[in-house]
Amino acid sequence: MVECCMRIDIWSDVVCPWCAIGRSRLDAALATFPHADGVEATLRSFQLDPAAPVGGGEPMAEVLARKYAVSPAEAATMMARTERLAADEGLVMHMRTTIHSNTVDAHRLLHLALESGGRPLQKRLNCELMAAHFEHGEDVSDHDVLRKIALGAGLDASAVDAVLAGDRYADAVATDVRQALRYGATGVPFFVIDDKYGVSGAQPTQVFAGVLERAWADAHPT
Prior knowledge:
Order of helices and strands: EHEHHHHHHEEH
Distance between the termini: 19 Å
CATH topology: Glutaredoxin
Radius of gyration: 18 Å
Strand order of the largest sheet: 2-1-3-4
CATH superfamily: Glutaredoxin
CATH class: Alpha Beta
Strand content: 5-15%
Shape: globular
């Protein structure tokens, strides 16, 4: 029998490498957590760069070099370091092929996935969006790319087309961002357990394991 539910809200962006790394570490902690069947993890929207272009195609290496005022070589070194950390978590990232993309429409589709197929479908779509960005260098602001990924993940074609043709779930995306700011989050990943315990950043698996244990004990005093 599934025990009383623990809720985890995860603020994340599909073009954030640390979000993928953090989720992988959380999943590793959940794999050994004795009450994992009672945990519900929901993705929440956050845009690292709401001003990112739609269909711009600028390499992220150039964006990082400009953002941190470093040389292209130094930006490449930063990206290589992130690739190695991702590889330690079993993730494939080709950071130097990623492009600067606006993610609002990707987030709208993640809300569709949650509403139509629940958390498993939402997680699957998120993984496919991240793979498109980090492994294949695709533009996750492009509607043709988004449609292909969404249908491949199992979303209904007519529902996907309707979302991409309008602004459905835009309010939900904005609400998620406002909630993260109210919690004090200034970046992602950001994890909130049962509205009480917050974890900022891609912390080590042991940190997630400890917070899970504390949160469960707090909710189930002996």
